[in-house]
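tl;dr need the bound structure. longer version: we got a ligand (L-tyrosinamide) that a collaborator sent over and nobodys looked at where it sits. i said id run it. heres the input, straight from their email, havent touched it
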Amino acid sequence: MSGGKIFMSTEKEDPSQDFLVETRPKTKRPPLYKVMLLNDDFTPMEFVVLVLERFFSKNSTQAFEIMLTVHKKGLALVGIFSHEVAETKVSQVMDFSRRNQHPLQCTMEKE
Ligand code: TYC
């Protein structure tokens, strides 16, 4: 973030009259959220690949690699989004998995 303090002189004899002006804009970037997929023993690998392609716009190579990372390590980061978008992604994955009777879990956490 840019900004800082500018020293203002009153151009009077007494330097104690000089003052500092705060120039840092009081804005905050909105927090971002990591969306993760979790491993389980039952969801078919092809289904996880499909989820990554459909909801996270991964190509088939990327989707397969992320799926394998989850399978081997227990979880993987699939994307970083605003709170609203992250919530939507998690809901879409959980609904799609439930409707297809797979126990696949998708979670989000503040970055
Ligand atoms: N472990 C699953 C299997 O062997 C595959 C899998 C991968 C499941 C990634 C979930 O997020 C997941 N069929």
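gonna send this back to them w/ a short note. The beta strands are 5-8, 19-22, 33-38, 75-81, 105-110.
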